[in-house]
């Protein structure tokens, strides 16, 4: 639209559907290019409290180092702020005791350069939300339901919403769907006259059960993460993880596939932990005091919508986060994909006008990069569970799984191979990193240490879990608030 000489053209307007972490990161990026309104169906909590509509927040979450870097780039200082609030930077593998799906225990190599950021999901989301919502140009519409996209098959011009004041239309130059696994984007696009996009579901039938404990003995500070991973070639696959989180607590998440899922009964929790391929988690919990009841979730399928492959795509609309692809949470890549997708959004908007035809399609294709890496890592394991998909694993997937097993075995024996493996698992580098000559040399001919016979916990760490705590934890930490 032409403007009078000497006047400033109005800023573009953007709408983000959903106040999730994906939505908040998208809003933070968009605020540099447009006035942004986040449309959220629920009331978002003011602090680190449970958010309605996010049941997976009750279970363990990890932020791999590729995600740590991305969040720090998007929201400078956010990682230090989280650490000040009780989150932990844990070097991998130094502070991670982990058993691979193929059975090897990883050594705790010193001098690790990869890190995990560990805290409760409620704390993480609240810090991100607070940082984004105080940015100029970002507004929030609470208790507002998205009804439909407005526009046609070539151009989305806004959205139709409903709130306590009734229905109304909100115009926008760009609409981002960040509404998560429950996204209605396929329906909205169909209503605009567009054909369905390709979709794939790989559902290992995983069920999760989590419980919060007071950190036993003297383990409230500095205790390593403990992870027993499930083996997809030995169904039902059962696994578990202990995450030391803020407030002197352990967040313990157990998982199992069809025929071996954990229940929500408190009395079954420890028995299930004893049924894992190693009883270390049950042993560490034997003297711990539970602070909550068990909570369960079974919405864990890997589901990917290949929007980037759509033959026709409207200008003014893009989809990010779990609305594109939701992953089995056991691999811990969802939050990292979210941040890396937001960086992809920023790169596109830095190079192309937000209102230009084709910008939305560029966003969709750019976001497919980190999604594809996480998808390959998750599906490469889950596709082997019985009933995970309409078809079993392809020949390529079988080859890659065998190759990854060989890489894991090398990582369990050689620190240089482990570093290369973590480059990929941490989503710092693409899976092609594993095919470089240095990694192939470690896998097939390099020096290798013998495998460990059990979890690499020191006697001091085991004793710390049995020690008597001199004083009870503060009331707020015991309550899990």
Molecular structure report:
- The chain has 481 residues and is α/β, with parallel strands linked by helices.
- Among the domains are: 13-61 and 123-201 and 301-371, 3-Layer(bba) Sandwich (FAD/NAD(P)-binding domain); 205-299 and 458-478.
- Helix content is 31%, strand content 21%.
- It has helices at 21-30, 65-74, 78-84, 121-133, 185-191, 269-274, 280-285, 334-351, 359-382, 395-413, 415-425, 437-444, 459-466, 475-478; strands at residues 13-17, 35-39, 88-92, 96-99, 114-118, 138-141, 145-151, 156-163, 166-171, 174-177, 199-202, 207-214, 225-228, 238-245, 249-256, 289-290, 295-297, 302-305, 317-319, 325-326.
- The strands form five sheets. Strands 4, 12, 13, 14, 15, 16 and 17 form a seven-stranded mixed β-sheet that branches. The protein has a five-stranded parallel β-sheet with strand order 6-2-1-10-19. A three-stranded antiparallel β-sheet has the order 7-8-9.
- The N and C termini lie far apart (51 Å).
- The model is unreliable at 472-481 (pLDDT under 50).
């Amino acid at each position: 639209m032409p403007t009078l000489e000497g006047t400033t053209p109005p800023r573009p307007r953007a709408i983000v559907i959903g106040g999730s972490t994906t939505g908040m990161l998208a809003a933070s990026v968009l605020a540099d290019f447009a006035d942004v309104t986040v449309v959220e169906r629920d009331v978002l909590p003011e602090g680190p409290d449970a958010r309605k509509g996010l049941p997976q927040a009750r279970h363990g979450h990890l932020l791999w180092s590729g995600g740590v870097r991305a969040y720090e780039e998007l929201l400078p200082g956010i990682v230090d702020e989280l650490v000040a609030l009780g989150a932990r930077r844990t070097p991998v593998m130094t502070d991670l005791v982990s058993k691979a799906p193929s059975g090897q225990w990883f050594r705790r190599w010193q001098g690790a350069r990869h890190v995990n950021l560990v805290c409760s999901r409620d704390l993480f989301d609240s810090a991100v939300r607070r940082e984004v919502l105080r940015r100029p140009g970002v507004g929030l519409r609470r208790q507002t339901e998205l009804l439909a996209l407005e526009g046609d098959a070539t151009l989305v011009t806004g959205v139709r919403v409903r709130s306590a004041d009734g229905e109304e239309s909100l115009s926008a130059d760009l609409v981002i769907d960040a509404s998560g696994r429950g996204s209605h984007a396929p329906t909205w696009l169909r209503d605009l006259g567009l054909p369905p996009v390709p979709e794939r579901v790989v559902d290992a039938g995983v069920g999760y059960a989590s419980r919060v404990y007071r950190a036993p003995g003297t383990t409230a500070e500095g205790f390593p993460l403990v992870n027993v991973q499930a083996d997809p070639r030995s169904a039902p696959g059962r696994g578990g993880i202990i995450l030391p989180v803020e407030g002197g607590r352990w967040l313990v998440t157990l998982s199992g596939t069809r025929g071996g899922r954990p229940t929500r009964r408190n009395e079954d929790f420890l028995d299930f932990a004893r049924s894992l391929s190693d009883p270390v988690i049950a042993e560490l919990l034997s003297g711990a005091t539970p602070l909550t009841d068990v909570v369960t979730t079974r919405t864990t399928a890997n589901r990917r919508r290949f929007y980037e492959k759509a033959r026709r795509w409207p200008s003014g609309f893009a989809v990010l986060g779990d609305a594109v692809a939701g992953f089995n949470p056991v691999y811990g890549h969802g939050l990292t994909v979210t941040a890396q997708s937001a960086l992809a959004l920023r790169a596109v908007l830095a190079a192309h006008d937000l209102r230009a035809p084709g910008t939305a399609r560029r966003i969709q294709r750019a976001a497919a990069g980190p999604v594809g890496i996480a998808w390959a890592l998750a599906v490469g394991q889950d596709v082997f569970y019985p009933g995970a998909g309409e078809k079993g694993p392809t020949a390529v997937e079988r080859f890659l799984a065998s190759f990854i097993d060989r890489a894991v075995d090398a990582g369990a024996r050689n620190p240089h191979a482990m570093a290369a493996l973590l480059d990929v698992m941490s989503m710092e580098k693409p899976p092609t990193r594993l095919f470089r000559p240095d990694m192939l040399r470690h896998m097939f001919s390099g020096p290798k240490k013998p495998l460990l016979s059990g979890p690499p916990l020191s006697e001091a760490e085991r004793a710390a879990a049995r020690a008597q705590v001199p004083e009870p934890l503060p009331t707020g930490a015991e309550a899990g608030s």
